[in-house]
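During the no-cost extension, the postdoctoral fellow (Dr. R.K.) reprocessed legacy sequence entries with the updated structure-token encoder. One reprocessed record is reproduced below for audit purposes.
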Amino acid sequence: MENETHPAAREEAMQTPRASVLVVDDEPQVLVALEDLLSDEFVVHKADSGEEALRVVRREPEIAVVVTDQRMPEMRGDELLAKLRHKSDATRILLTGYADLSAVARSVNEGGIFAYVTKPWDPQDLHNKVRNAAEQFRLARELAFERRLLHDLMNNVPDGIYFKDRELRFLRANSAFARTTLGAQPTELAGRRLSELLPRSVVVQQIETHEYQLLASGTPVVDAIREHRATDRQYWFSETKAPIRGKQGEIVGLVGIARDVTDRVETQQALIESEQRLRRQSHILKAILDGMGEGVVVADQSGKFLLFNRQAEKLLGRGARSVPAECWAENYGLFLPDQKTLLPVDQNPLLRAMAGDAVSEAEVFVKNETVAGRTLAIVATPLMDPSNEVNGGIALIRDVTEQRRLEKQFLRSQRMDAMGKLAGGVAHDFNNLLAVIQSYAELLLEQLPAGEQMHDDVEQMLLATRRAGNLTKQLLAFGRRQIGQPRALQLNDVVADMNKMLSRIIGEHIRLVTELAPSLGLIRADVVQLEQIIINLTINARDAMPEGGTLTIQTSMTEGEPAFVRLRVSDTGTGMSEETRQRIFEPFFTTKEVGRGTGLGLSTVYGIVHQSGGQISVESELGRGTSFTILLPFVEASDDDRPADTRWPGDENASATILLVEDDAAVRRVTSRILRERGYNVMECEGATQARRWCSELGSTIDLLLTDMVMPEVSGTALAAELCSSYPQMRVLYMSGFPHDGAARDGFINNGKAFIEKPFKPVTLLARVREVLGASHAGGNESGR
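Re-encoded structure tokens follow.
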């Protein structure tokens, strides 16, 4: 075909954006023919009149070529082209018959057209002319752009810039150079040599001699310091000069850039400070891009990355890649927080910012061959150009993996704390029931002869009651409400003393290894509770190694402040899944078969550790064993850690008056019965109101206040403080299955002299009452309050 283009030209056209061509003719068949001829290589717009062509140009300002017929009814082609000169940069081609050559001549003389084609046209010739016109349009645009750049450079930079020909005459100079060097306007320099402007300057003669040498050698001069004088003032300039070459490579002149460095030259210190300032600025820029803690990514409107700092590479696991913007999630492995779904295009913050969203945020999970898994928070904003148009997007990337882990840990801790409070509340109510059952069973047992079947039955009831009491202790331990007697002790001693017992627990098929660090610091804990921790973890490890393995118990000190003593219990057993690991400290959760565990072992460990002010964590993986790490605060030994004196006098106070305050009616009844049967005078109260009434009636005749610690109206500790302020001779004994935290802080529990734990045996209650009443005869009033 005549209009078939060369293959190389087609390939080149496919690699660059197609230029737009506007064809104008009042005959539809001509428009169709022109479109068929040009549409393979160009984007073709059509207009059937001059007015329509002007509207198209206003609508499509990037049209590169306008091809118009000369003879049209309302507006001739040359008239249209004349109007287009003020509305478009498009190159113009006129289609005309031989009779219209006068119009062509006018257009050519006025510079209105690039070419003309006579009808009927040669398709190949017309196609080539359009292609050449489009190329001229492109070159003209590039030239105009370069001229604008040169104009901006010349007029906006503070440095002096000038151009000279081979005779060293100024071709052009910017205002900075003319004003600073010569105190003149740029137009005053054109066509003149520097030696003509400063004829008596020796320095100027040296300058021109060096410039002639530059023109001869073609070697640039960089950062040459020169002295200049203008308006009776001395200046120092750093000058950089380079030759200008013509099309054949010949030197046709030179370009120079002059920077005022007067201050730098005047003192050496100014020079040093300037250099240091420049270095600092470059270092600051480098630090911003490569040293900041957040990743920074900048992309233009097409999706090409303009900036991708080092931290972004580290967080995403790879640097900038030339992939389409819609493929970023797949390329970098960006998933939604479910870790399974790739980040959708419409949720990508950077893409949304490039679309104009003011602020876009998202949290993603990164998973690729470099990054095993990391949670990132991405915040993106649009990149604006000087005209305030969106020109791309800027994204800040922050690693929030550890923050999210701590948040989950905090939520889990809150959930465990809530469950602990629930467990403690259940234990409190259960202990009240057990106190009633155990007390009545003890009273009944005293009345039954040994050897009778009913005597054995009651003993079995008491045995079951004690087992139930142990269960409530586990609940209290989980709820951090267990009663203990903490003291400063050496963890290594506890582990060493338990070595033989632990070996019997785990059996011969498991090897026990202990690694105890020397010079281990002291901790404050209850020995029994600490042994309970180690036993529970040991049993848990044993059950995880049915085929045998190794149980390792290690002790060590942490580094830094505050200091902790570390206990680590590790096994080589079956390990746990992530789902199981998240739930192991929940009460009653167990993976064991029915009947093999209550699900309270690890929850008990959790409660004791946190009650002792410590921390516990677990690391486990299916098939690779489990490690529990416990951190307990390091303490210094004090006088309070000496064993308490547990001696108490005999039963010489059985006739004393006791004010019993207990809100649970069953507990109150059985407690009162135990005391009355031993000769005590008991006043029963279900709350603070009745207690106050009895005190106002009996006053100083009340010897002992026996009160529950947790009651609806007011706590036992508050009631005791209130009554003892009016009746200081009155002793106090607290009882509870759920001691109040405030009481523990006030020292009512840890001294072990004024508290009895529910459920209690009658003999234990009587012993405690005798002990507290006996303290008043021994002198002082400290054991009860």
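The mean pLDDT is 79. The two ends are 114 Å apart (CA to CA). The remaining legacy entries will be reprocessed before the final report is submitted.
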